[in-house]
Amino acid sequence: MKANYVLSIIVFACALLPLTVQAESSRELLNLINAYRADPPRCEGAQEEPLPPLAPSMSLARLQVGSARQLKEAMRAVGFLAAGAEAITLSGPSDAAEAMRFAAQLNCRVLLSRRYSVGGVSQQDREWQIVFAQPLISPDLGDWQQAGRQVLNLVNTARAKARACGNTYYKAASPLHWSAKLGAAALAHSRDMAEHDRFGHTGSDGSTVATRASDEGYVWRSIGENVAAGKAEPEQVVNGWLSSSGHCANIMNGSFTEMGAAYAANPKSDTIIFWTQVFGRPR
């Protein structure tokens, strides 16, 4: 999954006079945007539903953006992992209220977008910049172990029902148990993929899932692995695997009794987030 970055530049026709930069004006504009989202007017001919407020982000407020490409690069530089982002630049408004009126008049679609949950506003004289973003990694995702156990729960829910993986029918299977060693093997491979910005089952050192599990001290009778990239949530990851016959077969394989899973991220990669799931049956 590649993130989407958009820049809109709006020029307000009036004389430009230097003003002192005030953080309070930026906060005021974000508050006005959130009030607008809470009680939205008609936008492009349609009545919009109320939206939750944008969470303030100092990282987004500090970005220096001149193009969509620069927006993408600037967000990567500050380590903001985004599924998508958009920036509006206003030139001319003398205060937050005027900036809000002008932005709403010409770009209500962005202000009322459900795609974004975080915002950052900056002001320099009569130049205003509003950055909207959706974090790729939700604050609710937690660390790799929490996310891995969410994957485990979703996989066990899937295994509880018979299903077809491609042309092969699988009976319901017993639930898997968490393995710390398989989790460590999954984390090692996810970090390796993220660090080297490469996707696949073979590690940068030529390792396989079998060698990685053994390196963690897991003595196995059978071993298997699923990998994914660019998916922001455990639900998206597991649903993607279930829609692929080979990955689905691993999930439904009744010979596996344990698993571990982990993610790792690289903000400089177009893929950004990498997932690994390792299945095993110990000796």
From TrEMBL:
<dbReference type="Pfam" id="PF00188">
    <property type="entry name" value="CAP"/>
</dbReference>
<dbReference type="InterPro" id="IPR035940">
    <property type="entry name" value="CAP_sf"/>
</dbReference>
<protein>
    <submittedName>
        <fullName>Uncharacterized conserved protein YkwD, contains CAP (CSP/antigen 5/PR1) domain</fullName>
    </submittedName>
</protein>
<dbReference type="InterPro" id="IPR014044">
    <property type="entry name" value="CAP_dom"/>
</dbReference>
<feature type="domain" description="SCP">
    <location>
        <begin position="152"/>
        <end position="279"/>
    </location>
</feature>
